[in-house]
Specification:
This protein is of the alpha/beta class. The chain has three domains: 1-31, no CATH class; 78-101 and 207-387, Rossmann fold (3-Layer(aba) Sandwich), CATH 3.40.50.1100; 106-206, Rossmann fold, CATH 3.40.50.1100. The chain is built from 16 helices and 13 strands. Strand 10 (229-233), helix 10 (239-252) and strand 11 (261-267) form a beta-alpha-beta unit. Helix 8 packs across helix 10 (239-252) and helix 13 (324-338) crosses helix 14 (344-358). It binds ligand F0G.
Length: 396
Amino acid sequence: MWLECIECRGKFDINSRFYTCPKCGGLLEVELELGKLKQKLRKRDLELKPPSVWKYRSFLPVIDESKIVSLGEGGTPLIRCDRLGKEIGVRELYVKFEGANPTGSFKDRGMTVGVTKALEFGVKTVACASTGNTSASLAAYASRAGLRCIVILPRGKVALGKLVQALIYGAKVLAVKGNFDEALAIVRNLCEQRNDIYLLNSLNPFRLQGQKSIGYEIADQLGWLVPDEVVVPMGNCANIWAIYKGFLEFESVGITEGIPRMIGIQAAGASPIVRAIKEGKETFEPVEKPETIATAIRIGNPVNGPKAIRAIRNSRGAAESVSDGEIIRAQKLLARLEGIGVEPASASTIAGLRKLVHQGEIKKDDVVVCVATGHMLKDPEEAIKTAVPQHRWGRT
Ligand code: F0G
């Protein structure tokens, strides 16, 4: 395995601790000898292992297995949603319920790998900026590993459930003025100056390797088939890339055939990538003051934007934005028709799917998977507003 820059294609030792390319500043990706893996890997061996991120160990960049930090992440349900599908107009619709992870979001898939790498590198402190879920997850995995954890959050902008998690797991929580993009700039700066603090935001190429397992797992749960479309909410824009990479790798080693169209959804008030895709641009204009009730994806300058644009373009996918009203309606619909409780960012996928079906971009006979990235209880304040009409709220 090696690190490779997605821009200049520079290659670096897998044990390097860069977050971006030292030559051109581009984003890094972990690459592996897929040809060699293809010769060794047997579908049957995978079938014998229990569902987990570590089921796909041979695709993951961990050298010292004794250091693996795990809380049982991955193996989340892929739930077929016929009632919701009928309402939206899709015959075969699934929701990948990432709220079932140990801290209630998909971030745990990345942190099990990222925090294991932190132990391999011998650091004692890990850090991140976050809209809430990354910090909740990092705080838990750091505790599990016996590491100190620093999280930098945009003050007053993080959902209560997520804030409580970071605090109770014992992270040092710093709330800063400004938005997520500014919090990320602060923590990047800190980790550049202090070599003893390891950055675990999604710039970290190792963390994303764990998130590839969403793609592997969807194919695995569909009986080694790939859906036509995978719909993913985009914030800092790493997850859509990681899932895409998972499908690419499975295809390269001959486990599956073809890759799904990657569909990225952003909230209307924070949608720089959707705009770039719709305008056919290779680069994007940051949104200065991002705004949406889906606080998880309230990000105006996604650092992994170039990866998301590639994932969508290379898979002949699409991108769409949705309003806060559409998100709230979708959250309620998913809860009431299927019993699946998700936070607003995750509900954006259902809202986006509805729009894209209406536009004819997604066909009614397609097999579609929406990735529900986080649990409803992450954001109880928004959920209660969704459940009870506001005019009645004061009297209940
Ligand atoms: N859904 C949820 C629930 C999230 O928490 C996030 C990101 C996303 C979707 C978007 O994923 O950033 O890879 O495009 N949350 C980050 C955080 C930013 O700090 O918890 P992405």
